[in-house]
Amino acid sequence: MKDTDMNGAESLVHTLLASGVEVCFTNPGTSEMHFVAALDHIPGMRSVLALQEGVASGAADGYYRMAGKPASTLLHLGPGLANGLSNLHNAKKAGSGVVNIVGEHASTHIELDAPLTSDIEGIARPVSHWVHTSHAADTVGKDAAAAVQAAMVAPGQIATLILPSDTAWNPGGVAHDALETPAPVPFEEANLARAAEMLDGPESLLMMGGGALTEENLEIAGRIAAQTGCKLISEWSNARLERGAGRVEIGRVPYPIDIALKVLEPYKRIVLVGARAPIGFFAYPGKPAILTREGAEILTLATAGADLGGALDALSQATGSTDTPPAHVVEPALPERPTGPIDLDGLAAVIARAIPEDGIIVDESVTTGRAFFPVTKGAPKHSWLNNCGGSIGYGMPVAIGAAVACPDRKVLGLIGDGSAMYTVQALWTMAREDLDITILIFANRSYRILRGELTNVGVGNPGPRAIDMLSLDRPDLNWVQMAQSMGVEACQVATCEELEAAMETGLSTRSPYLIQVDL
């Protein structure tokens, strides 16, 4: 096809493919129909339909975390983008690269102020690093290449390209070659000598996040810890953490503020690699927002967008640890097989025993899952994905993206029932795409985390109306029926033995499977 034979939408698809974007998580409308048509007759792009835009944006987040390159979303005008904002917020906080393609009214139609007219750029900016509107068919390809390039800025960025429908249907589209992927920014070499001096003994801490949490980087950190005696810790929420037997273990800053303060109190010197200085998720009456001890020296060696591997290599050389065997390497170890009614300890034990080799764990277990980390550290090697933005409804969409990115790996989603209701439509996409995902829904029939937050903010004796606003009963949610109605096989369990058998069933099939875990 000659460039002059293309319309703008066709040049968009050709450019995305040339730039390495091979998956589109889509929920299109009228203004995007020419893009839909182009996806139909141009081979190479996998189109995954979502029934709600938050599923599409969350799936793109999960895809980037596992594939290391962006997918695109296809969203309908301002309201469609708005439906996806929550998980775009989470993706932005996770450092995920996403290319949003958002349809807009034809340029001649915008002035008529039709019902779906809105300020799309204004809606996009709070969750985007890069926003642009194409104004002619012959610039769409160039703009698309720039969007992908922006999404690949380390650690990953949200790029939103807005296409008026006439730029999609008009002739004159020109496909564009991929632009050069930006290199990560350098780490703070001026801080290297001081960072090496600071990591001296058990009162010093190497705190890591983002891309520093690969298996290779954790091994370097383990060498530094063995040589210097410093401790290792990661942020509470990590986009992707490599864990399991044979890997260097790293703990997390606890979520509960009182526990976090105690954990961080011993450390007088903290070096940051890919992490921010620890702060509380929220403000609480009479409690500090900064979680480190007063007077602690905190030094940033590398920000999340920097060359984290290079920073750790240099720090290892500066501390003389390049040939030191790493500390904190986890031995294979599984808990004893639990029996009887499911409690939190039994639940953690069953999950630890079931984690498959090279599995991908998507964690949105909120309160239920706080006991999971210590028990699962000796399980087979796996990747653990957290919600970095705090907006719930992330887990099932991210599981979709992870499964699309890594079809040869098992995906296990650990999801609270309140969180799952925000993006329940994700089950339909799992079934439609026949994705290898096993979902555990923790049915405690409440927003349990908010029960605790009532106490944390000083509400000591909440009344029945307050409790009722945090409860998910009257009626109870039936996850088995919901899953089955969307084509996902499902079961309900109440004992450890039932859960163990259900997880064995779910993980032994390559199709989606949901387990309602009654707590």
Automatic annotation (TrEMBL):
One Pfam assignment: TPP_enzyme_C
Thiamine pyrophosphate enzyme N-terminal TPP-binding domain: residues covered: 6-111
Domain of life: Bacteria
UniProt-listed InterPro entries: THDP-binding, Thiamin_PyroP_enz_TPP-bd_dom, TPP-bd_CS, TPP_enz, TPP_enzyme_TPP-bd
Keyword annotations: Thiamine pyrophosphate, Transferase
Start and end residues of each Thiamine pyrophosphate enzyme TPP-binding domain: 380-517
Entry similarity comment: Belongs to the TPP enzyme family.
Protein name as annotated: Acetolactate synthase large subunit
Source organism (scientific name): Sulfitobacter sediminis
